[in-house]
Every structure is written in structure tokens, then in C-alpha cells.
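pinning this so it doesn't scroll away 📌
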Amino acid sequence: MHILEKAREIPVFYEADVCVLGGSCTGVFAAVRAARLGAKVVIVEKQNAFGGVAASGLVNVWHTIYDTVFQRQIIAGMTLETVERLRRRDAVDEEQRSHSVGYVLNTEELKIELDELINEAGVKPYLHTMFVAPHVEDGQLKAVIVENKSGRGAIAANYFIDATGDGDLCARLGLSHRLSSHFQPSTMCAKLSGWGANGDIQDSVTGTDKLTGIDLHQARLQYKDEFGIPEGFGWGRHVPGSSDTYMYAGTRVYHKNSADGEDLTFSEMEGRRQVRAIMDLVRKYGPDNKLALVSLPSYIGTRETRHMNCAYRLTGEDVLYGKRFDDAIANGSYRVDVHHQEKPGLTFKYLDGEQVYIRPGYPQEVSRWRGPLEQDPTFYQIPYRSLLPDGPFRNVIVAGRMLDADEEAFGGVRVMVNMNQTGEAAGVAAYLALSQSKSFGELDSGQIRSTLTQGGSLII
């Protein structure tokens, strides 16, 4: 059954040079970089705050800004600027020489800091605003249709940055994209009080403080059927500045695509059910732990949905062998980290050739994915071309996890410190395209790189 929606006139809410759809840190950094260069920028976010998975999803870690051997800084830009701003408010802790975590954030403070960045740069913000559809005239993307408490309206712009995470703008434009056959499962995080003892030595991989009288990994495995808890992987970190509030990421919602409305609804409710189940397990088998549920996310932590088909597909070989690109706009050192759909646990692949399969409750399986090299790579790169979607709309660029990367490459590049850089690159590219009246694909990548450097990014 279908309903015919009658044509109607709608107001233009705002006209800008650059429109950013999606207000994660990736989207905010794109908007701020373009605005700082002089563009008139608008940003549209469906949640009540900026910050994406870090804020609305509660994931309070950013990974290291150094290479794999912690000798060379490879990331700066707005990631480092934001860390420094949070540090002034005692809202960030640093974990040095850690392959698992570089910074632990108070993500509530992050929300406010991102508000200030938006306001200082003069970006026009729209919160609680849902992207509905693209508006195309004569084969050209001219505006996006949005809806909020004011009703339905349009935002017109010359250039558009799709930072929606799921590639919503590109998908609704009909641009070519794919869903990985083994897309990584989503995780519902939670903030809990009464967890462990803040300041104790944490596990170098999971960060999980010991609970009193219970080994949670073993208990989850032993009592999984009693509480309906799927096997997965649990980790977390304390909230900076708190005495006992812990962000725990220990749920798994398998085989559900967050870019599908029904799947997303199921995932949100199932994720919350699993949070309660884990707490019920601790209440029954570790009753000396006085856990209290402090907060749940307003959006489940989605690792992977759509990938746009772009001018270049980043491969696992590119990442694991540290391939250098002439048009590189981002650097990263986080290991390839694949959360499996087809089996419990996850696999880490390191740039030095080591491979580790971790299944909580079982011994780690350590092997090698390749033999030794004379010199191991210590970081990898993301090329600008992986942000340029195929198709006729040359005023659209992507930023964030919908970039073009295969399953293996995506396992490494998907983390926030890497995706933040793609946002900065998209924002700079939007300004350069505007100032030169060019499409995104016509830009000189060398000029993008040099402009990023002038704005504080580390371009190698």
C-alpha cells in the first residue's frame, strides 16, 4: 500500500555556502573548519546535542594520536584542540602508550564544548532536526528538505557534506553504495555508578576494573542462557572527574542494520534489555556490588552500516602495510579491530604482523597474519579520494564511517580520532571548492593538504 503525498510549497529555513548533515564530532569539525576559512555554514543534527557516538552514544574514549610505537605524533587538528579545551575543565584523562585508549572523555562536557566551537565559528546550528530528502533541480543538488518543531522546510547550499554516519544523503540521492556482508554489530553502552574503584590498575585491553566477588567475563559466559546475554566483548572506562561512574560497553546486537528503521528500533530496545540483564546478573551473583544505572544513550553505538562507493576503496592491505598516499588527509594507528557477526568475540590485527582473537572467558589466541618485515609500518593513511562518492552530484562529499573502505580496512580506520580528520578534510575541501567554483573532485589535493596544515592538522 502507498499513499500519495501531495506537492506543497515549503519555506527555505536557511541559505548557506556549505551544509553539513550530521553533528558528530566529524560533522562539527567539518563545519568549523569551513567556517573558520570564511564559508557560511549550517549544520543539521537529529539529536539534542552534537557529538555523535561520543556524546549521544556514551562512548567516552578517543584513541592515541601517536604512531604504533608512540614515537611520532600523527594526529593534531581539532581532535587535539578539543582535548586541550576539555583538559582545562578537568574533563579528560590521558592514557599514555596505550593501544586501546589515548584519551578518556567526560562526554557531557564534550557536548557543551562542541556547542561553543559551533558558536565561536559562527556556524548556524539546527538541533532536533531530521534530514528528510534531497531537493534536486535540473540534475543538481540544490537543497535538503528537513523537518523539526517548526515543520518542514528546506536548507539551500552550494556544497553538501554527508556526515550522517549512515550516508543518508548519498543513499537518498541514489548514489551507489553497499552494506558489508559481515558489518560489525552495534553496542548499547551505559553509565553505571558503583563500579570498581576509580584509580585502580585496569586491564590494558578492556579497562574493566574488578568487581567484588565476581569475574564478569566468566559470569557472563556461565550464565548467558539464564539472562539471555549473547557472547560478545565488554570494556569500559571511568568518567573523568567522577569517583565511581563507569562507562560500560558490554552488549551486542547481532545481524541488525541501523540504517533500517525496523532493525534500528529492535536494536535500541534489545540493547537496553541486555544492559538490564547484565545488571541483573551482577545483582544475583555479585550482590556486594551496588551498581546503579546512571544513564543510557539516546542512540545505540553503531559501528557500521552503508559504505559509499567512492573514487578509491581503501583496502586492508593499504592499512596493514601502511601505504602512503599523495592525497592523504588523515593518519591513524589504531589496530584493525573486527567485531565479528558470525562468531563471538573480536580479532585484532596489528601493523607488526601480530594477530589476536579474543573471546571473553577463553584464552586469547595469538598468531600472526604475516611474517616479519625488515621494518614494520607504524601508521596508515586515508586518501581524499575515499571521500568522493561516485555519481553525478559533484557538490557532495562524505565524512565519517560511510567512507569507502573494505571490511578489513574499516576495522582500523573507523575509530573517532580517524574519522574526525575526514570531517576536517571535507570542511576544508568545501571551502576550497566554493572559493574556486569547482567540484570536490576537481580540487588539487595538495592544496587541501596544505590548507589543513595551516589550520593545525598534521599532514604527512
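📌 and the second one:
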Amino acid sequence: MTLADGYRFARLDDRRRLAQVLRLDAWAFPTEIPIAELLSVEHAIPWGRAWAVEHERAHDGELAAMYGAYSLRAFPVPGAETACGWLTWVGVHPGHRRRGILREMIAHHFADCLERGEAVSGLNAAEAAIYGRFGYGMAAEQVSLTIPRGAELRPVPGADRLGIELAEWDPERHGDLIAALHRDYARVPQGIGRPGWASWETPELRRAADQDPPELHRGQEALRLLVVRDADGAARGYARFRRKSAWSRNTADGSVHVRDAVALDPAAAHRLWSVLLDLDLMARVETGPMPLDAPILSLLVDARAAMPVTNDLQWIRILDLPRALVERRYAAPVDVVIEVTDALLPRNAGRWRLRAEAHGAAEVSRSEAEPDLVLDIRELGAVHLGSVSLAALAQAGLVTARQPETLARAATAWSWPVAAGADWVF
């Protein structure tokens, strides 16, 4: 890792440098909110695992670039949880571009992750074209919806017997409950779980998830909470949302903006969405990122009317190939030799034999045998969460298979019964 002359890495340890970080961030990601107001907001900056790039002739502590990483100890992968260094807060000041700074920050991040024992890195990409060249593969998509008020849902037994609680959001009262429900959803359906469903593991992430600063309301009301409870009072689901009032020719045209919504069983999902879709003076419910197979899509009688919009969400980079492949589970038995290219981390390159039983432990070792599949580390990251198909990548010419039946077996093994994804960008 060699920065251009005059540049150096410096660790960002605490909030004393927040103003400098926010000034750089405003150059990288323009915002209408004044920095003076943003200083009072809780930002999920991973202090102590955030790094600045400084120039020796910088004025007033101006940063040339920065990046951070969240230390996720329980990031869900198919059938398991693993340690992951989640790349975030990446930005380069426009006055310091075209000097190889991003490349050096990525190399610095890879080395840091490997030193910490993290076999994979992940990110949400602000621009889809940037990170593939560093070996990140697009591993999970998202869907957002705009659902008309009163949209009909298919019936679910027991939904009408569940109670609801509506309250103004209060992190002191509700924070622990909501964090637990959100974390538990990573293991739904039972025995399968949802890859990619990251929880607010670090203190910075939890504080940012709990906050509701007026500076970020943008014309909407303060955050509201809906909790679904069973007959014993146990919470089975929740939604956090805001309403925005609007009128069109004396007709109510308000919107409900769902920040996050989780249900641990089908009845709770039905009850939760029934309430959100029937709030007075609202014309529609708008959702943020959700997995492609979120229950609401199956519950809607007319899912087309919800105007689903899909986009990329999670990108995965394999850093320690044998560990990463061992630390996940496979949907079917597999015994395959893969030949992998990796321009940035040559230790991953070469031929590897993977053997695993369905949903059982895997073994990975070096091999001299002829490869069954040939692919780049980017494609291996893309299939790591089980939602992107090896066969689909082969159709695009990105994976080469020696025999069609080998490709079919491997694609089945790498798949997973539910779509990978999350309900927030981090």
C-alpha cells in the first residue's frame, strides 16, 4: 500500500474530527443540510476503524479521502454467521481524485480485514460501476414498493387474533425490543435464515438506528412505531414509519414512509401490513430496501400495483477464499474443483477443491485436478450469499464449466432457499 507522494493514512479515533469528516462527506455526497446542523446528528462512523487520507499541505485539517469499516461479528451467510468487515464512509475529495487514493484505501481495507480474521468484506455501492474492479460481486438485490392504501392482502389464519400497539418512537423504551426483533429475523424461516440480514451490531450502528433527529425529517412527522403482539403480549413484529400529509384538490394524498418492518411469522406480517395500509388521510405506503421475496410481495393480491422497483444492494468480496467457503453452508451435496483468478489477492488464486454435504460442514483444499468451474473472485463473491446463480453467470460468459451437469450441481449447492438481503443501507 503506497500512497502518492505527500499523502498519508491517519486513524480517525473519535468525534473530535467529525466536522472534517462531514465536510469531506459533503464534497463526496452533496447534501442540502448545513454541516452545522449535521454536527448534532448521530453518525454511524466506526471511530477507531475509520481512516483518513491526509495531504501534507492541507488547510484547516481538510481530508483528501477517508473510509471506515464496521466490524460485523455475526454477518449472516447461508446457514451460518461469519465475521465481516463492512466497508463504508468511502469518499475522495474532488480536488484529490485521479491519484490512486481509492485503490490504496481498498488495499488498506483488505489488509486490515485479513489481520482481524475477516474472510469477507461487504458494501453498499453508491455507484454500481466502481467496486467490481476490486473483486466485489453484486450478491443481493433490493426491492422498494409504493403500495396503494387499502391494497388487498391474501388471508392468513390467526392474523385477526393479534393485537397492535401504536406509539411515538422512544429509543429508551423501545430500542432493545426492536433491535432484538430485527436480529431474530435473520434466523427466519427457522432452520434456514436469511443471508445478508445484518443487525445493528456495533454501538455506532445502534445509536444511528435509534435516533430520530428533526434535521432529517424533511417535511415528515416524527418517527412512529407499530408493534404486533400475540395473545400473551409477546412481540411478533414491528414497523417504524413516518407519515407525510398532502392534499390534492381537497382530497387526502398523504404517504406513509416505512423505515423498517419485521415480522417473525406469517400472521404477524399480515397484521402489520394491514395496519400500515389503512391509516387515515394516507394514499400510499412507500418502503425502503427489502429482500426480493419479502412476505408483503406474496401477501398482496395485486403485487403489480405496488410498482416494485429493484436495484443492487449488497456487494461481497471474498478475502480469504478457503475460510469463506468453509464458513457458509450449501443447499445440496457438492464435490467440485474451481479455478479462481484474483488480481489483487494472489493467495486466493489457483485451484481449490470444495466438498460438502447438504447443510453440513465443508472442506476446502488446494488441488491439482482439472477444474470443473473457472471464474474470477468477483463472481465467487456474487454467489456467496446464495441469491445469484452460478448458472446465470455462466450464461453471461462469466463462469466456464467443463460439463453442464457439474454446473447444475454446483449452482444448486451454492443457492439458498430464501433471497439474501437487508432492510437498510450501511
